[in-house]
Specification:
Elements lengths: L41 H7 L5 H13 L4 H23 L1 H5 L3 H4 L1 H4 L5 H31 L3 H18 L1 H28 L14 H17 L18 H28 L21 H31 L10 H19 L10 H26 L18 H17 L1 E2 L3 E2 L1 H5 L7 H16 L4 E3 L5 E3 L1
Antiparallel strand pairs: 1-2, 3-4
Helix pairs in contact: 1-9, 1-11, 2-10, 2-11, 3-10, 3-11, 7-8, 7-12, 7-13, 7-14, 8-12, 8-13, 9-11, 9-12, 10-14, 12-13, 14-15, 14-17, 15-17
Length: 479
């Protein structure tokens, strides 16, 4: 017998259950109660493994080598920024069991069906053409260093493996992250210990080469952006859990997975910059610098772990990127539409990565990418959290998630205005663009994400007249 919610929303077709090597049917539909399974602790390794990769290490490298933070300044900023991004990850993850839909579908409550094109479109692009290529490049470089094969070959190998995991879907993604954690956890723990042991507090980098207030803020934003980069995927991996599960523990395990992995590897990255012999010029390969802090056999194992970590991260990016694409409202009747989109997106990313020679100048522009990511995520979070608070988490019978006729303008207008205003006034994207505030007050640094979050939330509240209610039929009421 269908539940009240199941009678009002499209339910994912097919029988999937807990089968691991089986293609997950459907797309972004509601998960029926009969298909719910999983445990809160599953979220720990699901979010621990994908951060055990070099892109995480490089956040710490950016803090010291590019932003000019001293090691201790970077350490505090990394811990605080990651804590905030992990907290939001935990909160959003806890919504999955309650609503049974992907994160970008949940957005429709605040943004409306078509207004949701703004965050869903940004997330599709970020996941498939941002993170997917960034992580694939680091994995391909590691594999290239091990095998001496051409970049296009190693890049293709990494991408094909990622597509394979994402193609099968939810259950295989969870299982892959669980088993990948064993080698990734062991190797990266030992590697990070060696790097920390080689930390040189007497290095010219350790004390910081720039304004420490500005460097702290930039590092905080980068660490937040990296951790919060998983936020638009949060409920994608918890929507299969039963509504009666302990949702607090779902959030706790998800947050801990992100926090522990990011903090440890980012601190190792900050320490790596101080190690004697490392070079961080535009033509230096970042992954190769790890060889200065560890013996040869461990460096070889670390390269293998970097390649595996890239697959762990991008299986999630591709899976959720495909669902974000489907959330754009494109009609597809294929029973395996999510799987088909995942393969198509992976192939497109593969071609783009090879054609534009993604291996040129590794690490360059990464800082711009991670800061820009924080800009739109903060404005999006401002709207989503304010909407949830104003509704007290009540979306009626939840048909608003799939009703093409349900459209509201306050969400996307608030997010867009907050992004434009905060970026124009506060962004520090030297040498591309430096906003008036950091230009005239360099010590302030880049406060775009904070201003964007607050402004988006306030605008949403004001434009709704301070209240959003939902009647029993699921219709939004404005007061």
């Amino acid at each position: 017998m269908a539940t009240d919610v199941e009678s009002h929303v499209p339910v994912r077709e097919g029988v999937y259950g807990e089968k691991v090597v089986a293609i997950e049917p459907g797309g972004v539909e509601y998960i029926a109660l009969s298909e719910r399974h999983g445990s809160p602790i599953d979220l720990f390794w699901t979010w621990l493994s994908p951060n055990l990769e070099f892109a995480t290490v490089f956040i710490g490298v950016l803090a010291v080598a590019i932003f000019g933070a001293g090691f201790w300044t970077a350490a505090v900023a990394i811990i605080l920024g990651t804590a905030l991004g992990s907290l939001t990850q935990g909160i959003l993850s806890s919504w999955g069991p309650k609503f049974g839909v992907p994160q970008m579908v949940l957005n429709r409550g605040a943004f409306g069906f078509w207004g949701n094109l703004l965050p869903a479109g940004l997330n599709t692009f970020t996941a498939i053409f941002g993170w997917f290529i960034v992580n694939s490049v680091s994995g391909a470089f590691a594999l290239e260093a091990l095998t001496n094969l051409p970049f296009w070959v190693t890049f293709t190998v990494i991408v094909v493996l990622q597509i394979l995991v994402a193609f099968f879907g939810h259950n295989l993604v969870h299982a892959f992250e669980k088993w990948a954690l064993i080698p990734l956890g062991i190797i990266f723990t030992i590697s990070c210990l060696f790097i920390i042991f080689h930390l040189d507090l007497g290095s010219k980098f350790a004390g910081g080469s720039g304004n420490q207030t500005a460097a702290f803020i930039l590092t905080f934003v980068a660490a937040f952006g990296y951790a919060a980069g998983w936020n638009p995927y949060a409920s994608d991996y918890t929507r299969y859990q039963k509504p009666g599960v302990d949702r607090r523990m779902v959030g706790v395990w998800a947050a801990l997975g992100v926090f522990i992995s990011c903090v440890v590897l980012e601190l190792a990255g900050a320490a790596l910059v101080t190690v004697a012999g490392t070079k961080w010029g535009p033509t230096d390969i970042p992954t190769a610098q790890m060889s200065n802090a560890m013996p040869g056999f461990l460096y070889t194992l670390t390269l293998l772990a970097i390649a595996l970590g890239a697959v762990a991260a991008n299986a999630i990016n591709l899976y959720s990127g495909a669902m974000s694409f489907l959330t754009l409202g494109i009609r597809m009747t294929l029973s395996q539409r999510r799987a088909v989109v995942a393969v198509a997106a992976g192939v497109v990313a593969l071609v783009i990565g090879i054609y534009f020679q993604a291996n040129v100048a590794p690490g360059s522009k990464y800082e711009s990418f991670i800061l820009t990511l924080a800009y739109w995520l903060a404005a999006w979070l401002g709207v989503v959290f304010t909407d949830y608070w104003m509704r007290r988490g009540n979306f009626g019978n939840e048909r608003v998630f799939y009703d093409r006729g349900y459209n509201t303008w306050q969400g996307w207008v608030s997010m867009l205005v907050a992004m434009v205003v905060s970026i124009y006034l506060f962004a520090d994207q030297y040498p591309f663009y430096v906003a008036p505030v950091p230009t005239n007050v360099p010590a302030v640094g880049d406060l775009t994400f904070l201003v964007g979050f607050v402004l988006a939330g306030v605008l949403y509240f004001v434009l709704h007249g301070g209240k959003v209610t939902v009647d029993a039929g699921g219709e939004e009421q404005h007061a």
